């Protein structure tokens, strides 16, 4: 519709030609009308036609029908009825894998390392050689001891022959003394010679025994020149290379005993010291060992029948363990105490090695919580919302306030909640569906602090096109 310009009453155009000439004179009236034609001002005579046209258009618009109300869609969606559950919350503490027994090997004698048989990290069996120290000097000393023993044995044989002759001579002399065939002096000489040879033979036997022990000692010392592993384990450290001169007693290698217990050692906050005790059940995790199945994975079918679904979202490397030792001495610098949890043997056989990173999950107490699958939460703007079905099956968006995000693990004594490792999930306590820009682990659980109540029916994995007002399809 064209706009009209309203002119003041005193304008010559508004007065008309005759009144304008009468009031302003002929020249002024002509100038005013020329100005009006230049700017295409609309005279008042055109206004009634414009008003009539606007009324006709308005009546035509009033005759249109109102927009149709959209019909709610019927959708298929998995739902869960929320219920408060008794849970066991755990706290995670970084830990390091340590062999409980570490064998330290040292040189028995001085010498240069001649041969290296094993490198650090090698798996060793009992008796496996690690390195060889030059044993030339020990070999010569063993040979000298052996030669001295053999010479003493030959000397003993000679003395034994002389002793046998002296014994026979003494017997004859004794018989002749009775008959007066020899003097008493010859008898005493024969007796002294026999006694002297007998003592010499005994001395030689002692010397031979000493030389034999010396030879065995040198052979044993020579045996230590080849450093071998006494246990089944891993060569953790080798402190000498080929050509290195080592002194007697110098440490040459360290072997972690894998045939014995292997612990996961953690530094735990001093406030949890009253809760930690030996033989206490805990959970351990070594992320590098990803080939394990969670111990409760077989119970996933049982958990689906529960009033509230608790998916097995725990990492596959989490295993059951027990506390081996609690060092009840608090470090004044870190305000922590040492806790050792024994790793299962299957983890040791699968490759748990000293120095690997792990986590000890220590239960801190029981508490009733309202938990929600993290996949059920979507983000709308700055709000975390969920789709809640009413009594008629109509879905409504409801904002919620969320707490911490957990891994859930069903155990015979209840649902254990495991904190997520750093960098996994949103990290700020707000979770959401992966289709809405969130990165939460599969099966993760979120604690609901406000917005929902036990008994609410929530869509567990909403589709991207799910909208407020959609109706759930009837379950057959």
Automatic annotation (TrEMBL):
Sequence segments annotated as region (Disordered): 455-476
Q: Give the stretches traversing the membrane.
A: 41-60
Which InterPro entries does the record associate with it? RND_pump_MFP
- Sorted alphabetically, which SUPFAM superfamilies does this protein's record hold? HlyD-like secretion proteins (SSF111369)
Coiled-coil residues are 187-221
Q: Cell wall biogenesis/degradation among the record's keywords?
A: no
Which keywords has UniProt assigned to this entry? Coiled coil, Membrane, Transmembrane, Transmembrane helix
Q: Does Transmembrane helix appear among the keywords?
A: yes
User: What's the family?
Assistant: Belongs to the membrane fusion protein (MFP) (TC 8.A.1) family.
Q: Which NCBIfam families match?
A: RND_mfp (TIGR01730)
Q: Per its record, how is this protein called by name?
A: Efflux RND transporter periplasmic adaptor subunit
The scientific name of the source species is Nitratidesulfovibrio liaohensis
